[in-house]
Design brief:
Strand content: 15-25%
Shape: globular
Helix content: 25-40%
Radius of gyration: 22 Å
Number of strands: 15
Structural class: alpha+beta
Distance between the termini: 22 Å
Largest sheet: 7 strands, antiparallel
């Protein structure tokens, strides 16, 4: 679904001659420019005279804290659901996807079907993933069953911070000591060592999804996402494991590479990617990949549908990170 934001689509007001009033506690130029381009009027964030509040998560939590006694009127919306973290934190997302799978199995839903290897056919949304330190025993069992490279990510971090690769259980010993002192939760996922490459380089996709309601589910996919490329050609060799310019696509990290291109920022549009897929694999493959990515997004939203606090004053723009393997299967990361 194409997403085009217009004042009348975002806020419904009693009269058409009233300007939309907005405020924010984030001084982001892209926000300010977009609101001003629409002719919206900026107001003081400490007042109650606003229609759209683009707020930090801390402010949203304060607004919805019952002890603060804040009541939003019918014409006020904010940009986060109260428990947005059910989908945005890696550990909560994993927990909800696993719970959703179990619910489908109990209901004998066709969605829970598995292949002869025991893998989900329709709900294979994320690589094999465990939470550490809690799931260490299950992870070690899976690692001994199928050794290989795994990727460690802090559950609550972003922009590539704290991520590293491991291919031996002994490498987790130092981490486990640090984790106990810092009380951090990590997720560890099987590393996709055969990603789709373009020009020999690894990339992932960022797609934006606007959710205005979870019950009923109402979501809009932005027409244009983009690819983020690594600056160094990919190799699965263990020699490159510590070179994050080979493995992590985060711009916050790649911009420090000597070969970073600050003109295009190592990015491609989604449209260019689909043209590339159609040209190299055929139009049918490109169409199938598009549908598969939409399926991954839909099922992830359904996995949190029943746990999300569905306040009518809320909306959320989720940034989905998806990686495509060499068989053109999309994975939520």
């Amino acid at each position: 679904v194409a997403l085009e934001l217009h004042p009348q689509q975002v806020v419904t007001m009693a009269t058409t001659d009233v300007r939309v009033k907005w405020c924010t506690d984030l001084e982001k130029q892209c926000l300010v420019q977009n609101f001003e381009r629409r002719g919206w009027q900026r107001t003081d964030r400490d007042s109650t005279d606003w229609h759209v509040y683009w707020a930090t998560v801390a402010t949203v939590h304060r607004l919805f804290n019952p002890e603060n006694g804040v009541r939003l009127n019918d014409n006020q919306i904010v940009n986060h659901f109260p428990n947005h973290y059910e989908l945005t934190r890696k550990d909560h997302m994993l927990k909800n996807i696993k719970r959703y799978r179990r619910e489908c199995e109990r209901e004998r839903s066709p969605l829970a079907a598995k292949d002869d290897k025991g893998s989900y056919i329709h709900l294979d949304l994320v690589p094999a993933t465990f939470m550490l330190p809690g799931d260490y025993g299950m992870f070690a069992e899976e690692y001994r069953r199928i050794p290989g490279t795994w990727i460690m990510k802090p559950a609550g971090a972003a922009q590539g911070r704290g991520i590293f690769l491991v291919n031996r259980l002994s490498q987790l010993k130092k981490w486990s000591k640090d984790a106990k002192t810092q009380a951090k939760t990590y997720v560890i996922s099987r590393y996709l060592d055969a990603p789709l490459l373009i020009g020999g380089k690894k990339f992932d996709l960022r797609l934006y999804v606007l959710v205005t309601s979870f019950r009923p589910l109402r979501a809009y996919i932005s027409r244009e996402g983009f690819c983020r490329f690594c600056t160094v050609k990919y190799t699965a060799s263990s020699v490159s494991m510590d070179n994050m310019y080979v493995h992590l696509t985060n711009v916050s990290l790649q911009k420090h590479s000597d070969t970073y291109n600050d003109v295009h920022g190592g990015k491609w549009t989604l449209a260019n990617l689909m043209l590339f897929i159609a040209g190299t694999r055929g139009q049918a493959a490109a169409d199938r990949l598009h549908d598969d990515m939409m399926w991954v997004i839909l099922q992830s939203l359904l996995s949190v549908q029943n746990v999300m606090i569905n306040d009518r004053h809320c909306f959320e723009i989720y940034g989905y990170d998806i990686i495509i393997d060499d068989s053109l299967k999309p994975w939520l990361i």
